[in-house]
Write a structure and sequence with these properties.
The chain has eight helices and nine strands. With 188 residues, the chain is an alpha+beta fold. The protein has a five-stranded antiparallel β-sheet. A four-stranded mixed β-sheet has the order 3-7-6-5. Strand 5, helix 4 and strand 6 form a beta-alpha-beta unit. It starts with 7 loop residues before the first strand and ends with a helix.
Amino acid sequence: MAPQYEIRADYDARTIVVYQAYSPPIADAALQAGRFVAPFSFHRMTWIKPSFTWLMRRSNWARKPGQERVLAVRITREGWEEALSQAVLTTADPAAVAQAAVHVQWDPERSPRGAALNHYSIQVGIGRHLIRTFTDDWIVSLTDLTSQVRKAASLIETGHAAKAQRLIPAERAYPLSRALEVRLSSGG
């Protein structure tokens, strides 16, 4: 049985994939530039999620207004861990949360059909004071997964969940240092 609080992600020796859903104008501009550019907002927090199925639940499989395009954002593990090292849990003291460059919250992980599972998925909010570092230094590549997302959703809806599973990125436990484990502990 998997630990209740564990980061699960698609990663390699150098990078980790996080997912975000955007409106078509934001996604198109980012894909064309190879990084986030206007109309992406550099003045508000952006939330990144290593759980594909959690984002599918959040974006309703790319059907929620303003979240019609799903991007796989491959970032450096160094950047990911830098963000985590600055993270404050959203359940912490409100003054600490207000001052934090990075927010973290744990939400129930989701099955492909959207059911809550018995373990939690991490969301990481990159604050406006760190967002340029995220967009300019940490991002390695952006990939549009929208057609894959729509195909998987269609398969699930028509009773072909096993076929849909092949379109869902494989995720495994992400190794954390003991210091990061303590920082991200939900108190649980």
